[in-house]
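Quick one before lunch.
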Amino acid sequence: MRKALVAGNWKMNGRAEANSELVTQVLAGLDAQVDSDSVDVMVFPPSIFIHQVKGLAGDKIGVGAQNLCEFGDGAFTGELSSGMLVDAGCNAVLIGHSERRSMFGDTDERVAAKVKAALAADLTPVLCLGESLEQRDSGDALEVVAEQFRIATEGLGEEQMARLVIAYEPVWAIGTGRTATPEQAQEVHAHLRSELAKVEAELAAKVRILYGGSCNAKNAAELFAQADIDGGLIGGASLKANDFVAICQAAGAR
Ligand code: PEP
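Model of the phosphoenolpyruvate complex:
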């Protein structure tokens, strides 16, 4: 069975003092309540806090970035390269989050370039995919998500694909309090796994697919009980230590 993974996307939230409290409380909760052999835990703070959080989190919690620039170091004002993220202590990076797709110009092609840049630097890309409400209502969710996946991974070899984490995040569920039902999420996860199997059967068994979108301490266990849901990408609830730890516990107990 794939080891569960719970990843906290802090989005543009945090201040030094609050980060310190949050990480300290999460570490204490994980120690007391969660078997670290059963679940990997990561957080994705705003980049300016990566160094701070890495220092606090030690080896217990992986630290990643919320974005990276697809180009190498150079004249790209305001951007951060994969090499800089590695230097700051990251081992993963979110790519293609719907907020970046809708507000910051992350097209499918750009997402693909970012995935390649992350892999080249040995960062784990957490590739975010998801349909809009309109696309779901018109019955296109599976095809939309599969197409996003195909474009983002075009040209990758099997060894590179095996290093991906995928996060299915229906856009209509992110930050809305409206969670996909376990059945809706499972259907998309199974479809993504069948896309992986088209590349290579073993890949489908290996790659972790997380669910994200208003996942919280109450609904996590039900979602994680689905056969193809390997954990969660957690936004709002990752800012509350007790809730985040409860979600990690649910993932570890699945
Ligand atoms: C996210 O931002 O990736 C996310 C899933 O947010 P939320 O849990 O707040 O819906």
